[in-house]
Amino acid sequence: MSLHLTKREIKILLLLLDLEDSVTTKELAETFQVSVRSIKYDLENIREWFDEQKVVLHTRRNKGIWLEIPDSERLTLKNEIIEVERFETYPDQELRINQLIFRLLLTPAYLTSQELSEEIQVSRNTIISDLDRVEELIHSYELTLNRQSRQGFSITGDESKIRLLMEFITQKEITEYDIYQIMSYFVQSGQQKKMKEVHVGVNTIFQKIYQVALKEMTNLIDPSLFDQFNYAEILSITLRVAIAASRMQLHHTVGGYKMLTNQKVLQQKQELPFLLMKKVFDHYELPLLADEYFYIYSDVFVANDRQDIVGLTEELIKDVSEEIDFPFYRDQQLFTNLFAHLSLRLTKKHLYINEYNPFVDDIKAKYPQLFSAIQHASQSDIVGSALLINDSFIAYIALHFLVAYEKNQHEINVVRIVYVCSTGLGVTSLIEQKILEEVANVEIAGFASVLNAVEVIEAKNPDLILSIFPIESMNRPFVKVNPLPTEADIHSIQEEVNKILTHTKAGKVPRLIPRKQVKEQQGIESESRDILVRTYIIYEELLKAFGENLTQEYKEAFLLHVMLMVHRITFDSQYENEGNIVKEILLMQHELVQKIEQIFAKNDLMVNQAEITALLNYIRKE
User: Fold this and answer.
1) Most exposed of 107, 177, 285, 324 (fewest Cβ within 10 Å)?
2) Same domain, yes or no, for 364 and 485?
3) What pLDDT was estimated at residue 527?
4) Are 238 and 183 in contact (CB under 8 A)?
């Protein structure tokens, strides 16, 4: 009989097959965040598995562990462990807890600890201990573990919360290898189509229903639909259909018993969620209920659809910056990327809470402080979204922050300056050019008059203040200069900048803005002016095209969106079409879409469908 391996042993084994060089037990312990002793125990089983395959696992003191086999053999062994051995893992506590929850949720009656012990093949005492953990986990979903003398255990609570928990567990159990197998199956053709069984909800009705749902999905999905759905959405639709069918088999519905009345319209529109639901529900002779379709088709857990995305983006960046003491608010690219993500995420037609996210575990392990900061900020800033703020949602937002963090770790340190002069106007361009040309590693954050200096300084949050007036009670570095900076002024400014940078290198204040190249100022100024003029023209024309359809309270946000949109198109960084197009909206607003395309074409810009989809989110909802 094949050797049973734990999940961690599987991961170590796959890592060894991927590595060309050696790796030490200490490095493995750091990678998997366990002790060296635990790794050594794991390696005993891994060595035994390699012995069964007649492969030598080499070890040497001060060098580590490695394999000396050709790539073809590595690939064969990798396929073996991915496709066979990982389904024979010894159930650790996390896996047992997930199995217990699925059994309790997908059984019509109570289950005793003895029955659970026999099904999962562990001792009764282990089951009792695991059930305490089950109770702790389901409590966060506002569910209850019922304990009835002589009858056993069951889980009860709101049906939507039960299904949310099932989605969470299912996506925890599905691995990236499962995802690859499923998506490969979707794109295969002809007689070669072969679907390996996905080991989720093992020995429950869900496992068989899910396989039926996957098979039916492959018969329905058409390559022309791939630009409407990304793989996570396809996976979510399939999972929800299987979960709905599983619970309805046990007579648990998510709402009432009203039948779905617009089936013919949905059939004509070829709505993928409806088509899959009908196939699977017909297979199990289940009624097509309106509330069940709403559960499958959309997100029943998010109550607010009028979130101010611009304000939300600013608040999230500000709050995360404050909590982890890193000035993300200085990175404009982060604002653009995060705004785009939240716009599409919170206004999209198919909004799935527990979408598959392969980055969750790594981000939580490697960046716990950032993950926690985003979680707290999201819970505070996003309206009516208690259940939306889960690990998957947070991890996707964290990716944007990590891009900004990693990108700016290696950039030149820069000191941001606010210059206080007599009026805040006048010779500011001359002053800015002189300072940028003669002082290294500085950025002019803004100019202020003596009347609004406090407000500007608070808003710009500079590292250094230059002023022609002696400003009192400033809690940051300050240099008094002449109205037109002299050589002595320049020397004083550079000395203060050097002090601040020295302080920064000691780890006090991370920087995010690289120094501007002064010699390129004229070219940049001319190009920026052209973009601004073109943007204003496009904005005015779009206002006319949208007319009364534009949501008036979002008019300022619409202006910002158009500005960023023109900037993205100009610099070849439009939103990706994949997963960001909502065909129904484009078809419904086809006349407006044509006008938008004509406006951009007239201004020598080609706009794609993802950008148009995002722009149409500003249409007033009836």
Assistant:
1) 285
2) no
3) 72
4) no
